[in-house]
Amino acid sequence: MEGIIISLFSAVESGTIYALMALGVYLSFRILDFPDLTVDGSFVTGGAVAAISIVNGVPPVLATFYAAIAGFIAGVVTGILNTKGKINPLLSGILMMIALYSINLRIMGKPNVALLNDPTMFNQIEGFWASLGIDNFLNSILTDSGMDRLPGTWAILIIMVIITLIIKFITDYFLKTEVGLALRATGDNEKMIRSFSANTDILTIVGLGISNALVALSGAFIAQYGGFSDVNMGIGMIVIGLASVIIGEALFGTKTIARTTLAVIGGAIAYRIVLTFALKFKFLETGDAKLITAVIVILALVVPKIIANQKEAKRKRRKRAMLASGEGANNA
């Protein structure tokens, strides 16, 4: 039982970090209706820029900011390829993803960069957090409830929840501004927005830039969380992002923008929890994570449709029964 609680704690902790990536995928996939495969590359770009900056003595906070800027530039280039180069959205993302693989190798100078002996945002936060005594207070509550195995520190979870919520509220506010509304309208009906003399090319470029900035920011945090940046750490990230968006929407709904962005964050955490507990089965291995991700996405896509079809069939049966009873009453 205690092992399960510790695994749940770790899943929620990493889920809050990946939630930033999921928010980026939500902006491109749902708001702009743009299947942006740049994500697989820009996630690594964020980690690579943050890692190489930290190794070269840049303060971790500034290195994380540089990572977001690099991700923004990657998204802008994808947007330019699509809008100015008239390249298909899917192909634009694929081309940028392939280009970023070589660029990321150039940035790091080798396939991976370790951060084990360098200061990161998280170990700096942990150092400050330890002096506050909050861990002792929270762990004492768990000890009183009978738990022996306790989380090493609550610092990363609490700080990442705060950062993720701040970015969520900024995203909500941005999508309600004039530019944000135009961005949403561009994704819904680009031709109509263009007929109102709006520059949809600029909106698409800016939207993809912001989307990939969030993805790269998540990559920078993951690199510091794991203690290394690897050129292959972004493989399949777009599928994980889509899984988070779809699961979140299915579980928490999409009535408003604020609720949807919260659902995306919840979806990222739920995905990590499902993945963590799926790997607890003895016949599954760590290498099966991509297979599990694919199964989760398939279930998230298929199950809501099956439930909706069943509800529709039930509604039709009820309507037929009402009509039949009405006809019976009339005949009587």
UniProtKB/TrEMBL annotation:
A Pfam family of this chain: BPD_transp_2
Compartments, record wording: Cell membrane
Transmembrane segments: 6-29, 65-83, 90-109, 154-175, 202-225, 231-253, 260-279, 291-308
Keyword list, A-Z: Cell membrane, Membrane, Transmembrane, Transmembrane helix
Highest rank taxon of the organism: Bacteria
Any one GO cellular component localisation term in the record: plasma membrane
Membrane topology according to the record: Multi-pass membrane protein
Primary localization class, coarse: membrane
InterPro entries: ABC_transp_permease (IPR001851)
Alphabetized GO MF terms: transmembrane transporter activity
Protein known as: ABC transporter permease
Species, as recorded: Gracilibacillus salitolerans
